[in-house]
Amino acid sequence: MRTVPPPGAAGPGPRALLRRCLRPRWRPLAAGSAAALVRQVALLSLPLCAQRAIDDGITRGDLGVTAWWAVAVVAVSAVQWAGLAGWQWWANSADAEAGAYLRTRLADRLAVLGDGDVPGGRGDLALRATRDTDLVRIWVHGLPTWVVIATTFAFVLPALAALDPLLLWVTLACLPPLVLVNVWFPRRFEPALDALSGAHAARADAVADLLAAASSVRGLGGGQVLVRRHHTASAAVAAATMRAARVSAAWSAAGPLIPRLAIVAGVGLGGPAVLSGDLTVGGLVAFTSWMVTVTIAVRVAVDRFADRVLELTVPSAAGLVERDLKQEEARHG
Length: 333
Prior knowledge:
The structure is a single chain. With 333 residues, the chain is an all-alpha fold. It has 2 domains: 1-163 and 309-333, ABC transporter transmembrane region fold (Up-down Bundle), CATH 1.20.1560.10; 165-278. The chain contains 10 helices and no strands. Keywords: Membrane, Transmembrane, Transmembrane helix. This is ABC transmembrane type-1 domain-containing protein.
């Protein structure tokens, strides 16, 4: 029975495998990215339409202009919906094809392997054929998101500079705290969840021991020992739950707080500009809408940077597929 070469000798590894997954699917990914671009431009154009409706129609009491911009909002919303539908359609197609490709390759290799042929055995690779393949699918599906993030900043920052440079500086000032919140809290929350999971497991063991051994050790005075062990484990669960809850509560509060403070600062600085005529009411409304979009873009960008799917794809599983591909290329070369 053939054995799998050690990691590093089986081929370029997970990154090369992901590139091989993407190359045949560049068309749906390109189409999904183009649709995502259309969707995001349309979404970011809605505040501009609202601005013109307020400034040119509502504030002047012009019903005709207001109605015209209302129709424009409906039309732009339809374009936004169509772009979103296309984005999701092609992204789903690309990730489904990549997942089917990986599962088929791994299943073919698993069918001819024994338990001693790979580290961890066939069962470990069979698990990776589902778990790790799903991670790759998520990664593939999220690739057009980078177009959305780039479009958001390329559109919003110049638009804010055109409205009022002060609004641009307010937006730029809120970006570092937003990034910090979305980086720091997940790193605290994950260990807290791990500790909570371990505490629950320890209490489950204590309960199982208490139920299984209570009758046999009752006469020996061991029942109280098991009860005290259960109480200690329960106290550890309560403490771990509170630690995780504190991190979660702080994260939930700090996330929305920063953009809201930026909106307050923008309104505080933009209000006098409106009164002096340097900024319009519609421009201030557009600023608040764009701040919400920028906040979402920052959070998603941090999540994408934190995505470690390239390292999570197991080298042994990647090596199997890489070797299979090289053999096919040699046969058809």
